[in-house]
Amino acid sequence: MDWGTLHTFIGGVNKHSTSIGKVWITVIFIFRVMILVVAAQEVWGDEQEDFVCNTLQPGCKNVCYDHFFPVSHIRLWALQLIFVSTPALLVAMHVAYYRHETARRFRRGEKRKEFKDLEDIKKQKVRIEGSLWWTYTSSIFFRIIFEAAFMYVFYFLYNGYHLPWVLKCGIEPCPNLVDCFISRPTEKTVFTIFMISASVICMLLNVAELCYLLLKLCFRRSKRTQAQRNHPRNSLKESKQNEVNELISDSGQNTITSFPS
Amino acid sequence: MGDWGFLEKLLDQVQEHSTAVGKIWLTVLFIFRILILGLAGESVWGDEQSDFECNTAQPGCTNVCYDQAFPISHIRYWVLQFLFVSTPTLVYLGHVIYLSRREERLRQKEGELRALPPKDPQVERELAAVERQMAKISVAEDGRLRIRGALMGTYVASVLCKSVLEAGFLYGQWRLYGWTMEPVYACQRAPCPYTVDCFVSRPTEKTIFIIFMLVVGLISLGLNLLELMYLLCRCVSREIRGGRQGHDAPPAQGSSSDPYSEQAFFYLPMGEQPSSPPCPTYNGLSSTEQNWANLTTEERLASSRPPPFQNPPSRKSPSRPSSSASKKQYV
Q: For the Connexin N-terminal domain, which residue ranges apply (chain B) (predicted)?
């Protein structure tokens, strides 16, 4: 599995993320992708060959392995990482669309004052405001949903996060209840707990980022309403000032020594 | 090793913001750990379970005995050790990046504020606030952040955590496996019918690599402890130097004590007079005392000679002449 491509996509989104988003990307790549590739794949590498059942009945081992491991942990984690990274692509697409629109307007001659050339538009850091805020927030929301869903699927499929060292299997064609032994159950349990902890940390980071974005929005709205409340007073001041200026310009002789407050 | 690429890139960035000992530690980490893990991982430990043989035909006995003998493989244990020991360094890198961005934004804001008309008191207040915040972030001549203040705190904490984690992992390895690989493991666990002998694959080669990684771990721990002592000595010597200067330097106006001390001090704008007295230092005074001292100086100067400039001084409070010039003082 080539994780480099995913790294390239997500790295592009990194520039437009919040600080918490950048920490999340680092945790994903170091604590999950790297551990998956470097360590976990080798632990699960021989899971079917070294899955041994106490029977000579042909086919019994196969059906028992299939019953207890419908999807291997490794593949489930890889799927989880792909699903969790995909909403970030929505943000990347939105930014690309925004840049494309800006470049189109620039070519028509509309935004000449703001940007010097097309390169300037590409280099500009897009702020998380307006419609991009909604895209970004919904991407975080989906990330949280996917993480929680996969953690639940894990728990449901394997009856918890602990792998037992012996499994009892009595499915056809096994003649009776046979003992089947998993390869490296303790090591697999250690890595399962590690990956679940990393998922929990990622989920908490996403929740923190969501709260941060919502707070930023509320703060910005309250600043705007405060500015609007101040503005009517200013315009009143300005209109009074205008009257006084008219008086001064109309009657040049009659000077006014102090301005009304 | 392509799989470690992302982590390597991040740790490379920390290189420029570390002390000399920190740089050696990072090099030891890269060369002796990552490379050796890559070399030994597949070739020496690759067949550890397939060639783990037990003296029994009982199905499942080999599996359970292997699981009991090796709850976690050495290679994976070293990968986790490496990851956990690098994590405090990554946290420090995060702090460095945060401070660099903040310094950039503050410098931009300062530039914008200076472009505005200077007589506005609110602009002056904001400018003073920005300069106060910039004073906390120390930048060297080549634009790199100096390890001072809060950054020093994070650096020391990261070195401390690294030492604790390194020692913890070494102790954990000693408790789990010891420092040698025994060729025979006696196993008594269901479904094995009795105590069976199980034979480990390549015990001598594995022992050599275990001892090698132990030595690298001890060197790494030693470097961390050395760095802690170095930072402690540096802090103590700076405190002694700072205390001595604060004691000796005159607290008030007009004297020509060395202005280029390491501590922060402020310029009092003296107009274009080439013969104006050298800039006084106000080490260790509170801001109120400093303001009174400034006012007294101005009054004294105003009374001693007529003001040479047409316009009254725009600022009474002390200020940095320019961000880049003042940064040169922090040498």
A: 43-76
Q: Inter-chain contact A182–B70, Cβ cutoff 8 Å?
A: no
Query: Are B49 and A166 in contact (CB < 8 Å)?
Result: no
Q: Which residues of B touch A39 (CB under 8 A)?
A: 75-76, 79-80
Residues of A in contact with B71 (CB under 8 A): 186-187, 190
The pLDDT averaged over each successive group of 10 residues in chain A (261 residues) is 72 79 89 88 86 90 90 90 87 85 80 66 73 90 94 91 90 90 92 94 94 88 79 55 56 44 42
Between chains, do B63 and A53 touch, taking CB under 8 Å as contact? no
Quote the CA–CA distance of B67 and B47 in Å, as a whole number.
15
